[in-house]
Amino acid sequence: MTTEQPVSEFRARARAWLAENAPSFPRDDFYGDARTVQGLMQAAGFAGITWPVEYGGQGLTTTEQREWDEESQAYDVPVDVLAISLGMVTPILLDLGTEEQKQRYVTKLVRGEYIGCQLFSEPAAGSDVAGLRTRAVRDGDEWVINGQKVWTTHAHQAEVGILLARTNPDVPKHQGITMFVIDMHAPGVTVRPLKDMSGASKFNEIFFDDLRLPAGSVVGEVDQGWAAAVQMLRHERLALTARRTRTDNPASYSSLAQEVRRAGRADDPIVRRTLAQIYIGERVGELFSARIAEEIKAGGDPGPRGSVGKLAGGRHARMLADAVTTMFGSGGTVWSADDASGAALSQIIATAPVLRIAGGTDEIQRNIIGERLLGLPKEPK
Ligand SMILES: Cc1cc2nc3c(=O)[nH]c(=O)nc-3n(C[C@H](O)[C@H](O)[C@H](O)COP(=O)(O)OP(=O)(O)OC[C@H]3O[C@@H](n4cnc5c(N)ncnc54)[C@H](O)[C@@H]3O)c2cc1C
After folding, report:
1. Which residues, at least 6 apart from 48, have a Cβ–Cβ distance to it below 8 Å?
2. Does 242 have pLDDT greater than 90?
3. Neighbours of 198 (CB within 10 A)
4. Which CATH class name applies to 9-110?
5. How confident is the model over 368-376, as a mean pLDDT?
6. Would you state the pLDDT for residue 62?
7. Residue 51 in contact with ligand 1 by CB distance below 6 A
8. CA distances from 345 to 81, 260, 324, 363 (A)
9. Which range among 28-42, 198-212, 233-247, 299-313 shows the weakest confidence by mean pLDDT?
10. Is there a catalytic annotation at residue 236?
11. Which range, of 225-229, 259-263, 338-342, 363-367, averages the lowest pLDDT?
12. Which of 132, 238, 258, 268 qualifies as a FRET site for 303, CA 20 to 30 Å off?
């Protein structure tokens, strides 16, 4: 005898909405589709699930969030491009933004009307973000920004950016940084797209020439930007960990399993064993990030444990890339223009290094885990 699990009202609604709407989600324009689908989700009550209703959220709990994640797994929901907007920019504005900043930006971000980007890294300040040189100088009621950022994902499509700039050069480097929220289309901001090794242009270099910001653009407190940055990076690590199990993530079990089926190799015992290992890795990662998300929701601070999820995500991506090269040989590196499978496999390989660099490299995560979780001696400065 089988016993049916009762389905909550929210899950039933999500299931019905996805079945009716997901098959006809637009899939022609990477950024435009994400904006459209996010808007549809928000209007239907499935975006910003745990965020306050007054800023476009649904005011629900992590239970509904998990139910939505589980139900939407089975569909291609093309909103992955909003991971920075919704996984980092919106959370930090909700954490530290003023009422005016929340009113102005958060609802539009949740609806996909705005895309947000993270303006931290500079040519000489990546792992050592606190070494950043972009300057913010107070001039009456305004701040004047000059400097350069690099690797800024989605900046060429973004309306809003979270910027770190040096406000006090005369104190130890971690103490003189401030976080700002900026309008990416303001005069004084120049965005130049960069091409990555997959041929795509998703990140950019940004130049600030006398960008003038109102005093109310500070997020948190002046000169307290380092703590704000650490808080935002914590959100990033969680978002990256959560992202890796989505079906629309090219470097996931589902993508690889699809290619294995397409190639007729699903009965090969060695292939099956590798797939099982990858599935287990993803499931463990999923449970780990769910646990940390619950902890944050309950007011806890997972601190450096987010680095464990981030490091595991990078290792997992490498395992996937290795599996592709072992199973398909050159099939993932050379393919003809009409071979969708080759393109998908190449994406798995090309995505692996990204997860080991963006959001803090594997080496940096190991340093954090070693020093702050395991209590090992600090590396010499
Ligand atoms: C696809 C992608 C998207 C990105 N998107 C964004 C974005 O939207 N916004 C943003 O601000 N940044 C973004 N970044 C930048 C990313 O955060 C940096 O690339 C990363 O922090 C590393 O900095 P770096 O490239 O300057 O390398 P470096 O810091 O110069 O490091 C070079 C090498 O030295 C190692 N290393 C450095 N310091 C140490 C140390 N103390 N101990 C041990 N090893 C060390 C590193 O691990 C690395 O292997 C993105 C990067 C990528 C690849």
Report:
1. 42, 55, 56, 57, 58, 86, 90, 110
2. no
3. 15
4. mainly alpha
5. 94
6. 84
7. no
8. 20, 10, 7, 26
9. 233-247
10. yes
11. 338-342
12. 132
214 - beta bridge partners?
142
Contacting residues for 375 by C-beta, under 8 A, at least 6 apart: none
**For residue 251, is pLDDT > 70?**
no
The matching CATH number, chosen from 1.20.140.10, 2.60.40.1120, 3.90.330.10, 2.60.120.10, for 244-373 is: 1.20.140.10
Q: Does residue 42's CB lie within 6 angstroms of at least one atom of ligand 1? A: no
Residue 311 CB–ligand 1 contact under 6 Å? no
- Listed in sequence order, the residues at least 6 apart from 195 whose beta carbon sits closer than 8 Å to its beta carbon are 201
CATH H-level superfamily of 116-223: Butyryl-CoA Dehydrogenase, subunit A, domain 2 (2.40.110.10)
- Separation of 380 CA from ligand 1 center, angstroms? 19
